[in-house]
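Tutorial, part two.
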Amino acid sequence: MISGITGQDGSYLTEMLLEKGYIVHGIIRRSSSFNTFRIDHIYNNPDYLNSRFFLHYGDLTDSSNLNRLVEKIQPTEIYNLGAQSHVQVSFEVPEYTAEVDGIGTLRFLDAIKETGVKTRFYQASTSELYGKVQEIPQTEKTPFYPRSPYAAAKLYSYWIVVNYREGYNVFASNGILFNHESERRGKTFVTRKITVAASKIILGQQDMLSLGNLDAKRDWGYAPEYVEGMWRILQADRPDDFVLATNETHSIREFVEETFMNLGEEIVWKGNGVDEKGFLKSSGKEVVRIDPRYFRPTEVDLLVGNPAKAKEILGWQPKTTFRDLVKIMVASDFEKAKKRSE
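Running the prediction step on this input gives:
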């Protein structure tokens, strides 16, 4: 059973579980327009639909709905990936973010407790919990210091998982995943925003890429490998909390440079602070600028995780390098942009 099945991680996890022979039940929110493009290829596959792949309307803000679904489906594993997952947006809708990302997890855990269903529960935790980092790199023992409504809501989620695990003997685990991207990442997230915009700029479909803090550093991995880590967390002998990360950090600036390099261009930076701009070395054309609207009220400057525990206990480790990740995303977005121009 997967909440957030229409998202990046949900779609990759669904593919992987179906390949392993699972029956997969996904929860989708009702809306006036479908947002199922990431799983349409699965939904339209006659080998899966109505035999091993099912979709149900549901919402993390509706406890009676979650109770009913858990009781009806009797899942052996639950992956709670559903969330208001955009950090910047959480400053605009803090109460909704808390309701979905925090209390939503409690509703799921309570449904497990009340129905008595024997299941294993995976909670999608986040490196944003570390926020104003207290040590480098971050591990499962690093103190948390959330710096956004999103991170604060996820902090509640993290601890309520621990409480239900210890208080009610629920098999509930937290996966503290550092940034993981792919060609299926939403276009409002900074990595995908960069690869889409750069592709369009090179093809003459767009003039400018506007960004916030170029010097924010993140630990970036490849999403399909991280969903395998989620699965491994639930196959462990006992429930526990695990960091999944690459133990490498790169700045937004590096991501921009690597993206344009994959498109045969070099970026030259001029100016300082909010006046800094990026130019194509070949033509001198300005293509990157800073927009203060993208600054967070409280910035997270550096995230880098140590996945040693996951490697030792789960046998999990990332394989895709930063450069390969950018290459995969650029290749995909350039092809999509090229098709639009034909």
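The radius of gyration is 20 Å. In part three we will examine how such features are distributed along the chain.
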